[in-house]
């Protein structure tokens, strides 16, 4: 069994303990001198009540990895007779000592002291939380090249909160300290990346942290400064305004320091705009390369889309949406009498009937089809779907028959998933996760396992595409566990494909290939089940997953992986060939992934042609996730920046990112 995904320790200790996130203990299965391979300590070694495991957690979380017997007795058995409690402690100590033996029948890493117990050192028993703190100390002391150490520490701390499933007071102190360390380390990491001109990484680091708490001014201030230094003053001010909105809802106000920074940026922006026309006239004479500013601008592109929490659909936007849907032929047609009946029922929700339920189901299905089929930006569709969910929730507030409630909960789950999917496309992963969580709850109340596991699968996307792949794996594994034997084959194949991509991101080729094989069932089907309109998993989509995974398997330094690159190109071409013309939303990602394979082969002209096709589609879709994919491709093309093909791609990207009115000045 491989180690827990994410940043792996450099230590070759006999045991590895993971306290950040869910607890795990692993033992090395290979001898000293050989490559270290670890396997999870089997569950049966802990016993049914697992108190020996909790004893280990407590010792690992305490200063010096030690605790007195009195402390442990009071913590575990406060209401038990002292004599019996002492017996329980001895039994669990013996069990833990056996788990931590260096060799069968030999010494243990659990050491007796006069008044208690302690555990072995980091060299023998590696602990992720202790490793992170040690790395931060080294980064502070070294002074010359602290960045790699700081990055490694942040990777460890981002795995999760300390022993997240434990709620005892014994863990709260260190948990809070580590959370504070994580935040400060991420801020410092962002600042150091910016100092090294790794501006896109710096911005991503600070944006990710600000998502957790938009009012955190220790993160907000450096992020605003960074955006401004990149020439993205408008984006910096949008971040500030968003923070002020959240703070106002919580009864807070920005500090004077942050307000003054915002005023300075507004003042400089006004001066900049007033001279924009004159600077643009000199652009042809300048020898500066504009591409760096252009690409770093893209990381804040989601800020240029509509504010994600604006739930009111303005008449002008409603009219635009209707025009777009009519133009694509996907707008739902409902008789005027049915719409009139729906309005009456909405005014008196307790009168819901079969016709109204049928109408709501049809409407939900059509929103999903619009998402799959129409070339509509997520920001436009989002308002419509939020409004639809509000109506569903209105019905659920009233007394209903059990069958009616289940049907409405299923619709609420499907609609919440669509909203989460749209937030995901806009790059707002925090809100996407919130709606997927609600979708899971609604699916559980509806007793609809297929919808529940689909929400878990989509939840994994919000982690893997926001740089937290290690948090994505438990989500998809939970989905697959729930789905086994309880859902249609198409659902299980879809979940297998998602896990394959996550395992590829974690560089576990064997697990990824296994999951891809389990998704192959879809290739035997001519129809995938129209009833799963919220899924739309077909052969083209599987080929897309396969191509992405094969492309990730390729390593330029390893000639043996060259066959994967060839296979990636073949399957991605097949995915595009199989893609229905009504599924244009998927096309940009496939084109970009295919372009990356050509780039890795050095076929730059071919790569750029596919990139431009994707950019043209992204101009309509305004997809933040699509832009992230595009910018990854553009980084791959950097060695060929002087070629005419790449310059043409740059021109299209600039046209995509810079508003037309600004380009005309």
What would the keywords be for this entry?
single chain; 665 residues; mainly alpha; Arc Repressor Mutant, subunit A; Serine Threonine Protein Phosphatase 5, Tetratricopeptide repeat; four-stranded mixed β-sheet; three-stranded antiparallel β-sheet; 29 helices; 64% helix; 4% strand; disordered N terminus; disordered C terminus
* The CATH fourth-level homologous superfamily of the domain at 141-304: Tetratricopeptide repeat domain
Strand content: under 5%
| DSSP helix fraction | 55-70%
| Count of strand segments | 7
Biggest sheet, spatial arrangement of strands: 3-2-1-7
Measure the end-to-end span.
Answer: 60 Å
Assembly type: single chain
What is the annotated CATH architecture of the domain at 141-304?
A: Alpha Horseshoe
Structure classification:
mainly alpha
Broad shape: globular
Sheet of most strands: 4 strands, mixed
Task: Report Rg.
Answer: 28 Å
User: Residue ranges: pLDDT <50 for 5 or more in a row?
Assistant: 1-8, 272-318, 320-336, 659-665
Count of DSSP helices?
Answer: 29
The CATH class assignment of the domain at 141-304 is: Mainly Alpha
What name is given to the CATH topology of the domain at 141-304?
Serine Threonine Protein Phosphatase 5, Tetratricopeptide repeat
Calculate the mean pLDDT score and round it. 81
């Amino acid at each position: 069994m491989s180690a827990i995904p994410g940043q792996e320790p450099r230590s070759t200790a006999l045991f590895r303990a993971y306290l950040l996130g869910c607890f795990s203990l692993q033992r090395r299965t290979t001898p000293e001198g050989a490559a270290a391979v670890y396997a999870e300590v089997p569950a049966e070694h802990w016993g049914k009540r697992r108190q020996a495991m909790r004893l280990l957690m407590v010792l690992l979380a305490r200063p010096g990895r030690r605790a007195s017997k009195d402390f442990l007795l009071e913590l575990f058995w406060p209401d038990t007779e002292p004599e019996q409690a002492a017996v329980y402690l001895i039994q669990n100590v013996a069990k833990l000592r056996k788990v931590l033996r260096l060799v069968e029948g030999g010494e243990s890493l659990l050491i007796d002291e006069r008044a208690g117990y302690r555990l072995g050192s980091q060299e023998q028993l590696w602990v992720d939380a202790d490793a992170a703190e040690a790395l931060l100390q080294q980064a502070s002391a070294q002074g010359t090249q602290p960045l790699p150490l700081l990055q490694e520490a942040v990777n460890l701390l981002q795995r999760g909160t300390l022993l997240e499933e434990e709620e005892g007071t014994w863990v709260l102190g260190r948990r809070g300290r580590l959370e504070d360390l994580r935040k400060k380390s991420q801020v410092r990491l962002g600042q150091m990346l910016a100092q090294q001109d790794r501006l896109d990484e710096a911005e991503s680091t600070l944006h990710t942290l600000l998502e957790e708490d938009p009012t955190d001014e220790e993160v907000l201030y450096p992020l605003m400064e960074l955006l401004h230094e990149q020439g993205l003053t408008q984006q910096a001010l949008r971040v500030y305004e968003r923070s002020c909105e959240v703070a106002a809802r919580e009864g807070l106000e920005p500090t004077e320091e942050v307000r003054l920074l915002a005023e300075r940026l507004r003042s400089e922006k006004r001066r900049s705009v007033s001279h924009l026309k004159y600077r643009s006239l000199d652009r042809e004479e300048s020898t500066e390369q504009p591409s760096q500013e252009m690409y770093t601008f893209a990381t804040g592109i989601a800020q240029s889309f509509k504010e994600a929490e604006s739930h009111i659909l303005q008449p002008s936007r409603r009219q635009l949406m209707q025009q777009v849907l009519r133009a694509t032929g996907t707008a739902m047609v409902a008789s005027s009498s049915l719409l009139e009946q729906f309005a009456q029922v909405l005014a008196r929700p307790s009168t819901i009937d079969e016709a109204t339920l049928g109408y709501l189901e049809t409407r939900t299905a059509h929103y999903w089809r619009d998402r799959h089929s129409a070339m509509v930006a997520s920001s436009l569709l989002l308002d419509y779907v939020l409004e639809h969910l509000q109506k569903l929730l209105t019905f659920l507030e009233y007394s209903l028959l059990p069958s009616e409630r289940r049907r409405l909960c299923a619709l609420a789950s499907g609609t919440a998933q669509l909203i989460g999917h749209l937030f995901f496309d806009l790059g707002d992963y925090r809100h996407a996760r919130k709606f997927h969580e609600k979708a899971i709850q609604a699916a559980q109340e509806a007793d609809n396992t297929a919808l529940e596991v689909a929400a878990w699968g989509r939840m994994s996307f919000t982690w893997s595409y926001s740089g937290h792949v290690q948090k994505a794996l438990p989500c998809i594994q939970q989905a697959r566990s729930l789905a086994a034997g309880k859902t249609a084959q198409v659902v299980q194949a879809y979940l297998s494909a998602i896990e394959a991509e996550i395992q590829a991101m974690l560089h576990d080729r064997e697990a990824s290939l296994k999951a891809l094989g389990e998704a192959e069932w879809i290739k035997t089907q001519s129809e995938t089940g129209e009833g799963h309109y919220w899924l739309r998993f077909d052969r083209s989509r599987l080929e897309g997953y396969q191509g992405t995974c094969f492309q990730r398997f390729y390593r330029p330094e390893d000639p043996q992986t060259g066959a994967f690159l060839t296979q990636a190109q073949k399957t991605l071409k097949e995915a595009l060939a199989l893609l229905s013309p009504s599924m244009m939303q998927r096309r940009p990602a496939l084109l970009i992934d295919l372009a990356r394979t050509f780039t890795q082969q050095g076929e730059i002209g071919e790569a750029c042609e596919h990139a431009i096709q994707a950019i043209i589609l992204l101009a309509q879709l305004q997809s933040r996730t699509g832009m992230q994919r595009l910018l990854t491709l553009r980084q791959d093309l950097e060695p060929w920046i002087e070629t005419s093909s790449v310059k043409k791609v740059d021109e299209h990207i600039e046209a995509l990112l810079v508003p037309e009115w600004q380009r005309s000045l």
